[in-house]
Amino acid sequence: QVQLVESGGGLVQPGGSLRLSCAASGSIFSIYAMGWYRQAPGKQRELVAAITSGGGARTNYADSVKDRFTISRDNAKNTVYLQMNSLKPEDTAIYYCNAGHFQYSDYVPFTYWGQGTQVTVSS
Fold it and tell me: Residue 56 above 90 pLDDT?
């Protein structure tokens, strides 16, 4: 079992930046790959970024956020981050973190989810 708590969301203007954090507890954090998902109103939840377990040597990104978002992890703090730069109105969504694993090159989520944090990009 692992418990996940996201923070860092808020209201930001287009072109601005935010850093989301997800603190994990209840299990050995480093054994899990981690992912950030988002869900906009009326849309399905989508994978935004993922990072492998351990040192996080590999990362995956959705095409829509490549070169703008960066996922990273600090195993000493049991925390995964999502740095979001050059934010656009279409990035508005609830952002969730997830613990999972990689199957070949694809991130596969386990049923461990945080409660989500709202990100709103608007002028």
Answer: no
CA dist 9 → 74, 81, 85, 114 (Å): 19, 12, 13, 13
Count Cβ atoms within 10 A of the Cβ of residue 48 and give its class: 0-12 exposed, 13-18 middle, 19 or more buried.
Answer: buried
Look at residue 26 in the predicted model and tell me its pLDDT: 82
SS (H, E, C) 76-121: CCCEEEEEECCCCHHHCEEEEEEEEEEECCEEEEEEEECCCEEEEE
Contact in structure between 101 and 110 (CB atoms under 8 Å): yes
Considering only the C-alpha atoms of the chain, give the largest distance between any 2 of them, rounded to a whole number of Å: 41
Question: pLDDT of 66-99, one tens digit each?
Answer: 999 999 999 999 999 999 999 999 999 999 999 9
Q: Tokens 């590999």 correspond to what residue?
A: 58
